[in-house]
Amino acid sequence: MGIALIGYIISTATLNTPARYIACFLFASGAYAVNSMILGWVSATLGSTPEKKSVSLSIVNVVANASYIYTAYLYPSSDGPRYLIGMASNAAFAVMCIIGTWALRFWLVDTNKKLDREDNSDTTRYAY
């Protein structure tokens, strides 16, 4: 997602065609590469039972596909060619994804330590 963030920043900062062309590759590859990792992490973290795994994957897919609802409103034709609102929003979403990932990681590490202190040897540990 950091690579995608660099692409969004380049697209927001310049109208240079070659730079924006390269930025398109950066944010497309950076954002799409994260999707499969997020699904794998959710599956490993919340997959202690088949029910939890199916519900958690469904919720992640619904949240991910909700972007199709608001994305059209972030890129009005009056905002072109820079599309500052859309690119800045994408950069903000990338930052929120990075922060949320680190927060979840620290929370899972802390939860695993609590499980170890309570000596729950039969409880599945969370992947992080």
TrEMBL record:
The chain crosses the membrane at residues 20-42, 54-75, 87-108. The keyword Transmembrane applies. It is a multi-pass membrane protein. GO terms for cellular component: membrane. Keywords: Membrane, Transmembrane, Transmembrane helix, Transport. GO terms for molecular function: transmembrane transporter activity. Coiled coil: none annotated. It is found in: Membrane. InterPro entries: MFS_trans_sf (IPR036259). This is MFS general substrate transporter. It comes from Parascedosporium putredinis. The lineage of its organism: Eukaryota, Fungi, Dikarya, Ascomycota, Pezizomycotina.
